[in-house]
Design brief:
With 168 residues, the chain is mostly helical. Helices cover 59% and strands 0% of the residues. α3 crosses α4. The protein starts with a helix and ends in a 26-residue tail after the last helix. 16% of the residues are buried. The model has no long low-confidence stretch (mean pLDDT 90).
């Protein structure tokens, strides 16, 4: 069906572009990857004491200390190796998607032999990695918890497909 092919192609392209936007390292771009590298390079200024102190007004300091150890290491400051692993995980999860964007969406590669094994399942896996990292580093920077990034739609969004709009 032409309509569904169009919807699938545009949805897929939007997902690919949105994901690759988060691993763009150009100087003028804001991305999750650049944020993680900045955090890694300044890990010594993010301490367990500072993190736990942010909890003090609303929650016991011990919860902050526990959360820091659970997510960011047992050292007195942020463990840069944890951030480095997160960077590797992000890069690994998005590598094929970035290649697909570069050779199939933003540009067209003329090499017919180039095959990129990418499907919606792999894109969904990359989105899950992105979501988990955003939730984790939101906790680090804001001492706040988010359980998911996907919004919960509060209305029947499928109703438009049940309403006829073309008259015979």
């Amino acid at each position: 069906n032409l309509f569904w092919d169009h919807m699938r192609a545009n949805f897929g392209a939007s997902l690919v572009l949105g994901i690759t936007r988060q691993v763009d390292e150009r100087a003028e771009v804001i991305s999750l990857l650049k944020l993680l590298k900045d955090i890694k390079n300044n890990a010594n200024i993010i301490t367990k004491d500072w993190f736990a102190d942010q909890y003090a007004p609303t929650l016991p300091r011990g919860i902050g200390e526990r959360d820091f150890v659970k997510h960011f290491g047992t050292k007195p400051e942020l463990d840069a190796s944890i951030v480095e692993q997160d960077i590797r995980d992000l890069s690994s999860a998005t590598a094929k998607i970035a290649k697909f964007r570069h050779t199939r969406i933003a540009h067209k590669n003329t090499d017919a032999r180039l095959v990129i094994d990418l499907n919606f399942g792999k894109v969904e896996q990359a989105l899950k990695v992105l979501e988990n990292l955003v939730i984790k580093y939101y906790l680090l920077l804001n001492q706040g918890g988010i359980t998911q990034l996907m919004p919960v739609i509060q209305y029947d969004w499928e109703s438009i497909f049940r309403t006829p709009w073309i008259k015979n």
